[in-house]
Amino acid sequence: MKDIFIVEDDTLIAMLLEDMLGDLGYRVCASAPDLERALATAKDSEFDAAILDVSLAGRSSLPVAKLLDERGKPYLYATGYGSAPEGSAGTLPVLRKPFQLSELEQAMKRLTEA
User: Fold this and answer.
1) Cα(26)–Cα(2) distance, integer angstroms
2) For a Cys staple, 110 with which of 16, 22, 42, 93, CB 3.0–4.6 Å?
3) What is the largest CA-CA distance in the chain?
4) Which residues contact 98 (CB under 8 A, 6 or more apart)?
5) What is the SS3 string spanning the chain?
6) For 26-80, what is each residue's pLDDT tens digit?
7) CA 80 – CA 45 distance, rounded (Å)
C-alpha cells in the first residue's frame, strides 16, 4: 500500500500531509479539495488508500467514505473535530488534527492492518 488519495479542503494541511506521507515512504497520487472532486476521484482513480478530512467546507465527507467502502478501499479520517462523522464505520482509524509525523505513521499502520 503506497499510493494515497488525500481529501482535504485546507491547502496547507494537504501540502503538509503530502510531505509527511512522502517522509514515510508513501506517494500521494491524487488529492481533492472539495466534495465534488473527491467523489469523482474516489470513483474513477486508482489508489491504495485514502485520508479524508471529515468536513469539506462545511460538508461531510461521508459520501466519499461510502463510495470507498463500495470499492473496498481502506481509508482513515483526519479531523479537528475529534471523531469520525456520524454514520461511518466505528473501527476506522481517526487522526486528530493537529498531528505529528509519528501519529500519522501509527494511523497508517493501523489502516494497513485493518
Assistant:
1) 5
2) 93
3) 32
4) 80
5) CCEEEEECCCHHHHHHHHHHHHHCCCEEEEEECCHHHHHHHHHHCCCCEEEEECEECCEECHHHHHHHHHHCCCEEEEECCCCCCCCCCCCCCEEECCCCHHHHHHHHHHHHHC
6) 999 999 999 999 999 999 999 999 999 999 998 999 999 999 999 999 999 998 8
7) 27
Write the CB contacts of 88 (distance below 8 Å, at least 6 apart in sequence).
Answer: 62, 65, 77
Query: Do residues 28 and 6 touch, judged by C-beta distance below 8 A?
Result: yes
Cis peptide before 98 (omega within 30 of 0): yes
The amino acid occupying position 38 is: A
- Give the predicted TM-score (pTM) of the model: 0.91
Separation between Cα atoms, residue 33 and residue 56, nearest integer Å:
7
> What single-letter amino acid sits at 90?
G
